[in-house]
Amino acid sequence: MARFAGWVQRVAQQKPIWRDWFGLVSASSNGGPAGVYGWSGTRSRRRPAARNPLVPSFAELMSPSFVSVDFETANRLGGVSACQIALVKVVDGKIAARQSSYLCPPAPYDRFEFTWLHGISRKQTANAPSWDEASREIADFVGDSPVYAHNASFDARVWRELDNYFDTATLPGRFYCSYRLAQRTVPGLVNYKLPTVAHACVPWFELDHHKADSDAEACALIVASIQGMSGVDSLLGS
C-alpha cells in the first residue's frame, strides 16, 4: 500500500508537467477561462473560425440574382429517390421566374414512403421525366446564379447523388443555406426551421410546408428579405 501511495503522489506531481508539455488546456491563475499553451508554454492566439461554406459572404449575398431550390424525396434510400424539384429565380429582390416538376425515381428507388408528408405518390410521377431528362433544363434555369436551399446540406446531397447516379454534371458550385444564413442574421428565433424563419422574415407569406414549390418560394423570399436588412454586411463580412 505504501508503494501504491507513493506512485499516486508521483503521478499527481507530474500531471502539470504533462499538461504544459503536450499543449493541453491549463486553467488560468485568476480563475478565468482556460488558456491554450503550446510547446513554449506561452499562450497562443486563437485562430479565427473558418467561414462556413454554406453561408455566403456579404458580397455573394448581394448578387443581383439567385435561385432557390427544394427537393422532395420518395423514401429513405437517398437523393436518387427525388420525386419533385422546385426552383425560384429572384432578380433585384423580386421573383422573376418559377420552375417545378415531378421526377420519376428509377427502380429500386421508387418506393413511396413519404406520401403522407408531401402528398406525392407513384401515380403522380409515373409519366414524369427522370433526372437525366430534366437536368439540362434545370441547369439552364440556374445558369451561373448562386443557389440557396433551407437546410442546403440535404438538398445539395440530393442533387449530388442524382448527378452521380445519372452521370450528369449540374450541381451548382455556389450552394448556400438559408437556415445557416438566418442563424447569422436573424438572431433570437426559437428555432430556424423554415416555417419559423419565414414567419419572422416574410410574415405575410402563406407557407404550404413540404410542398416543393411553396418551400422554394419561402426560401427565396427569406434570402431576399435578408438582402434588404440593415447591418447585414457587418454580420457576414466581405
Verbal overview:
The protein is an alpha/beta fold and 238 residues long. It folds into 2 domains: 2-36, no CATH class; 58-236, Nucleotidyltransferase, domain 5, CATH 3.30.420. Helices cover 40% and strands 16% of the residues. The longest helix has 20 residues, at 2-21.
Give the arrangement of secondary structure elements.
Layout: H1 2-21, E1 25-26, E2 35-36, H2 58-61, E3 65-73, E4 82-91, E5 94-102, H3 115-118, H4 122-125, H5 131-142, E6 147-149, H6 152-166, E7 175-177, H7 178-185, H8 194-201, H9 212-227, H10 232-236
Parallel strand pairs: 3-6, 6-7
Antiparallel strand pairs: 1-2, 3-4, 4-5
Helix pairs in contact: 7-9, 8-9
Indicate the CATH class of the largest domain: Alpha Beta
CATH superfamily membership of the largest domain: Ribonuclease H-like superfamily/Ribonuclease H
What is the N-to-C succession of helices and strands? HEEHEEEHHHEHEHHHH
Give the strand tally. Answer: 7
List its salient traits.
40% helix, five-stranded mixed β-sheet, disordered N terminus, Nucleotidyltransferase, domain 5, two-stranded antiparallel ribbon
